[in-house]
Design brief:
Length: about 80
């Protein structure tokens, strides 16, 4: 399958990017994360997505697909 720059650009426009940055003061946290990912064979992307999904699910937070309303669990 040939690479198409136009198709890739169209696809990238549909994607959402969210980044994290570790400062020099957070070096220990960064090193721990890198070591964990290497040990478990996970990518940072899949690990962070799983953490976010689990956190939002635990909080009962979701956005309905059909009407874009936000639902949260109230306690």
């Amino acid at each position: 399958m040939a690479y198409s720059a136009k198709s890739q650009a169209t696809y990238n426009k549909k994607c959402v990017r969210i980044a994290i940055k570790y400062t020099p003061n957070e070096q220990k946290d960064s090193d721990s994360l890198k070591a964990y990912l290497e040990q478990t064979g996970q990518s940072a992307n899949s690990y962070i997505k799983a953490l976010i999904k689990a956190d939002l699910n635990a909080k009962g937070f979701n956005v309905s697909d059909n009407d874009n309303t936000t639902n949260t669990k109230t306690e």
